[in-house]
Amino acid sequence: MKKLRRSARLVDMTQYLLAHPHTLIPLTFFSEEYGSAKSSISEDLSIIKEAFEEQGIGVLKTVAGAAGGVKYIPQLGLKQAEQFMHGLLEQLAKPERLLPGGYLYMSDILGDPGTLQLIGKLFATVFADKEADVVMTVETKGIPLAYATAAYLNKPVVIVRRDNKVTEGSVVSINYVSGSSKRIQTMSLARRALAEQSRVLIVDDFMKAGGTVRGMIDLLQEFRATVVGCGVLVETADVSERLVDEYISLAKLQEVDLKEKQIALELGSYFTVEG
Prior knowledge:
The protein is built from eight helices and twelve strands. The protein is of the alpha/beta class and 275 residues long. The protein folds into two domains: 6-74, Winged helix-like DNA-binding domain superfamily/Winged helix DNA-binding domain (Arc Repressor Mutant, subunit A, Orthogonal Bundle), CATH 1.10.10.10; 78-274, Rossmann fold (3-Layer(aba) Sandwich), CATH 3.40.50.2020. It has a six-stranded mixed beta sheet with strand order 6-5-9-10-11-12, with helices on both faces. Helix 5 (113-126) crosses helix 6. It is globular. The protein starts with 5 loop residues before the first helix and ends with a helix. 34% of the residues are buried. Pfam families: Pribosyltran, PuR_N. InterPro entries: PRTase-like (IPR029057), PRTase_dom (IPR000836), Pur/Pyrimidine_PRTase (IPR050118), PuR_N (IPR015265), PurR_Bsub (IPR010078), WH-like_DNA-bd_sf (IPR036388), WH_DNA-bd_sf (IPR036390).
């Protein structure tokens, strides 16, 4: 039991809530932790709730009843998200990012902790109510995005491999058609990595025709899993046939001029739908 002044208790409670997103915490936990009456704890939580909402940190949801408590739901407000994404679009539009095939170099962005944190919080905001059991991606560039998102959803990460590894044990493998190159490729997932009938949120960094995401969806059928959402950081606009219908993007690659080295980007479907 901690004996703290109220100011210190508020800081300690706030830190605990931030470290345990999407977790129902009984009032009795805080009451016993600080040796305080539940009425005092409720007052403290009201102060924290107001601060979270004013600062755009998220919401503090109260669950009534004997088994109730409070739950911190991380949220990035639409205005904050738009400001962040406009800054990210400026970085992505730099000519030196152009790669053969119309791809963008994004490894530096996906390696920046601050940027990843905000992308993860934004994805967690988008899919907060989907009740996913796991966050899934395919190696390699989607991995940091998946972990950033999973941290705010407080869920484990499942990684689909492009080749079998002895350390993975028994695996389920499928062949899929790459949407852009039309090549037949293989992806696999360890049987122990995902429980059957799981609810899965798919996160990836880049989508052209959607062949890779389509492959993951087909692979999940082998586990009788349900895809509750699909989020991509950047999608391309110039695709005649998309292999995935339901997904949300944060940015859209509108046009690429390799000769002039010009890149045109705009906000993705999340913002256009919300707007």
